[in-house]
Design goal:
two-stranded antiparallel sheet; 10 helices; six-stranded parallel beta sheet; about 280 residues; Rossmann fold
Length: about 280
């Protein structure tokens, strides 16, 4: 069994099976990969929608520990590619040293970010409006998903993504992120001071409502101010938070593949096998 090259980490409200096109493309370039779900996710979108109770009270630290455990069972040291809250998780895995490089696509803000644009507040409001949601799982409506994730694509395309991949998500990570500035040992904190770590790519969609570009730029500056390790920022004009899922996903994926090659983060072996274990 060859080592797994890439671990894909999904974000809030999206099922792990949404990474399948990425896994197939990465396999064409020789990378083996896996896309595990969050602790409490079920194997399919339908099963998770039917009973999302396993996600109740699941927070950032539990998600990071879950992926660290998955990686511990793999051969070699993989690369983490995460979207949204998965991007925050990818950064934490890199800081822990359990991955050799990381790509954080439109990542949820880490502790220390002060920018709080209106669209970000509105995107989180369906959860944050009720403190009781911290301990339970919350589903978005199609209209809420269109504002937060799909504002840069057509309503028709957004609804198709919603029907195919969207699942209820735990409220706890949003509350932990929103209160990070007031919590000394916040699970949203990432060590940006590490002098030696693998390369990190941050990306931002120019029309992203969930994580506007100003937020990701501030994260990039936090790294630039504290470490000489490689931290790059790629911005995609006109793209929203659905950029890993919508009709332009391949442009983003190919940009990520090119960056991995530039950093020497190449496949461990030549293979076209895709591990879709969830």
């Amino acid at each position: 069994m060859s080592p797994t090259d890439v671990v894909f980490v999904h974000g809030l409200w999206i099922h792990a099976t949404a990474w399948q096109p990425w896994q197939e493309l990465f396999a064409e370039h020789g990378y083996t990969s896996t896309a595990p779900g969050w602790p409490g996710d079920k194997d399919t979108v339908a099963e998770t929608r039917e009973d999302p109770s396993g996600l109740d009270r699941v927070g950032i630290a539990q998600i990071v520990d879950h992926y660290a455990g998955v990686i511990g069972g793999l051969g070699g040291t993989p690369i983490a590619v995460g979207h949204s809250f998965g991007g925050l998780v990818a950064q934490e895995l890199l800081a822990r040293g359990v991955v050799r490089g990381a790509v954080a696509i439109d990542p949820a803000p880490i502790k220390g970010v002060t920018a709080l644009p209106f669209s970000q507040l509105k995107s989180g409001f369906p959860v944050l409006k009720n403190p009781a949601n911290k301990n339970r799982t919350v589903a978005l409506t199609a209209k809420e998903f269109h504002y937060s994730f799909g504002n840069a694509i057509s309503e028709e395309e957004c609804n198709a993504i919603f029907d195919t991949f969207v699942i209820p998500g735990p409220g706890r990570p949003l509350f932990e992120d929103a209160t990070a500035a007031f919590v000394t040992r916040s699970p949203a904190a990432v060590d940006t001071h590490l002098a030696t770590r693998g390369p990190l790519l941050l990306t931002s969609g120019g029309e992203d409502h969930v994580v506007p570009s100003v937020v990701t730029r501030q994260v990039a500056k936090m790294y630039a101010d504290h470490t000489t390790s490689i931290t790059d920022l790629h911005e995609y004009e006109g793209r929203g938070h659905s950029l890993t899922l919508d009709n332009g996903w391949k442009d983003v994926a190919e940009d990520v593949l090119a960056w991995l090659l530039e950093q020497g983060l190449t496949p461990s072996a030549t293979t076209t096998e895709v591990d879709a274990t969830l």
